[in-house]
Fold these 2 entries.
Entry 1:
Amino acid sequence: MIPSPSPQLQRELGVFGAIMMGLGSIIGTGVFVSIGIAAGIAGSAVILAVGIGALVAICNGLNSAQLAANHAVSGGTYEYGYKYLNPWLGFTAGWMFLVAKSASAATAALGFAGYLLNAFGVSNRNLLVAIALVAVTLFTVIILLGIKRSNTANIAIVSITLLTLGFFIIAGLPVLTTQGLTNLTPFFATPNQESINPITAILHASALMFVAYTGYGRIATLGEEVREPRKTIPKAIILTMIVTMLLYIVVAIVSVGTVGADTLSQAATSKAAPLEVAARSFAIPGSSQIIAIGAITAMLGVLLNLILGLSRVVLAMGRRGDLPRVFGRLNETGTTPFWAVIIVGIAIAFLVLIGNVKTTWSFSAFSVLIYYAITNLAALAIPSEGRLYPKAIAWLGLLACLFLAFWVEQQIWLTGLGLIIAGLIWHKIAQTVKNRN
């Protein structure tokens, strides 16, 4: 059943705005929290995991770019699945996106609160959760004001974040030089997990690090709001991925090389602030405070962009009737999907109550890998006249996503499969009700 025409969002983003939205979505939880989490799994080999995650993400980024260029509407792979595959896979993509990115947004909010409290020397779980909830509420309100104000806030946030990461690299290089290879060897040792095979650890860490790159998909989900999407979206995604990959690899080398994988891991799990702890070893006074500022802005940037992207997928699902149709409505000025933003903010707030960054991040990893597996499958179905890149890239992305998805903890992927089944049952019920009406 083809949905009736719906009011369209205004196209207000150019290449620079789209790149900054991509950077704002990517550079945050991934670099400031997940490198520490992955270091606790793979040790110094987290550097290799960062590279593997980047290669898989680049394949997915190219496929997302050509899909968005051919079908530039809000909703990302949810819409691509409907157009190029079938309603069941389209719905599953949208459902997994909501699950994955709601968990990522909760991780970002908790990471923000963790860095903020750590900067003041405070360690209190209840306060951590309370501050995270305030952040979710604040940014939900900002996004309700529309894409222009969201973009302005994002550019300011990303600029501060990039400056502080540049400082982290420059200030950390002298310490790295002094330490030499002390903290980087043995390269394939797994911290406190002698029984774990190093290859298993690297694949597990790669699955977690892949998620750290997936903000580029936000550019695709904003396809309806980008000017000249066929030119703008591929260019913005490719440039965003190159900048992010180089930055992540250098930050991983500096952070692990200065304090070691064990210290990073402990800081990530107990304080959600690994880079701030690493910066304490720098000779420059106030280094940890500077990194804390950058982390705080980065987490807020990710939170802003995730709420933005999630609300656009809820909008698309509401338009089709896969979610209640009230979520498919725009405000009077046509600048924001009001009810979609509200429900996204509420969902993230509930996940914040878990209060554990490793759990929320791992859950996001499985869900987002399934989401991008469907993205690559849809890219295989693009007609030859609309194809920008070889089919081999789509095959590589598809196989890599399915392979990595099941290297997270067993209870995580079992829960994820259960949610997929629950979502498909809901979809069947929704379709039955819609057909009767």
Note: Residues 223 and 433 are 30 Å apart (CA to CA).
Entry 2:
Amino acid sequence: MNDKKNYGFTTTILHNDRRKGIEHGSLHKPVHTSVAFGYADARQLASVFQGKEPGFRYGRQGNPTVSALEDKVNKMEDGVATLCFATGMGAIGAVVQSLLRAGDHVVSSAFLFGNTNSLWQTVTGQGIAVSFVDATDVANVAAAITPATRIVFVETIANPRTQIADLKKIGDLCREKGILYIVDNTMTTPYLFRPKAVGAGLVVNALTKSIGGHGNALGGSLTDTGVFDWTQYPNIFENYKKAAPAQWGIAQIRAKALRDFGASLGPEAAHHIAVGAETMALRMDRTCSNALALATMLEADPRVAAVHYPGLASHPQHALATDLFRSYGSLFSFELKDGIDCFDFLNRLNLAIPASNLGDTRTLVIPVAHTIFYEMGAERRASMGIAESLIRVSVGIEDEVDLLEDFKHALEEE
């Protein structure tokens, strides 16, 4: 391949392993299962451990198969460095473990994935303050910032009610204040949106979802976009300031979150995700198209009370989504009219599967309030706009006509 040519998104991901050279002419980076890496020269081993030259130390801190995936994700996000973790929550947990200390303050969107919300609730008991705000308006973020604020954290499209943070204006605010801006890009993926464009310093991706795309491997990643000036961040240990400032953050995350905390991605999962990533753009085009068609049909049905999807003109942030994203994503949620039992409706579906994952090739549905958001309680759900009848739909790649017919039939049987 011509390494100097700028190829398109899918071409770059598809051929990325070959650009680096692979053993025996393989088209995929092979699965390296070894957890130890030997060196003929003991001095070189010491040099690798001290960060003076590249190399692998121990499987918990890096692996050739995982590194190949990291390079793929890094190119997707146009980053300077990417680290992979065992899960998406492992990636978010790495932020807490490596970058926050007692007395710090976090401003977070109130509209969050349930487990992320739970994590922030946990850290409040560890001496870290968290303010939950309606991040669809930058004014709410600005009002919550204090001198102790270290991080502002948002999702691109909230799961499950699809609220969209005021991404660019929040990025401008963080740049002005010198605050680290972290954006979870899972719902959009790097194909639909690059948070670097709005000033995100770190980008989270749950690789389990649309990037891997086949529901067969767990994984997560953190990408340093190169936008944030780490010399402004007070929580960097002196030991990690030996490298260029642009590397301080990722060096500390690698040491404190991978080496010390151990949330490492295994090579077999990394291989599954890397292969799945090759078709991400194709799958996203199909799932986004299916989602828009299905959401449009449901919005017009008299038995549906509300549909929450950024692709609909009725969505409060539709214009913002149109401006920011290539398309509107593959996830939406909807509420049935009073008197229609959500469980009975879900049981009438033939193709859509009741399951808790998202970003799969198959369409998955789940009654939100009774499952993934049950633990937080009715009051917190209400504050997030989550109705008791809310059904989340992660749209797959099925033929559109079959998908529409499946939901139409389930409604007509009411």
Note: The longest strand covers residues 149-155.
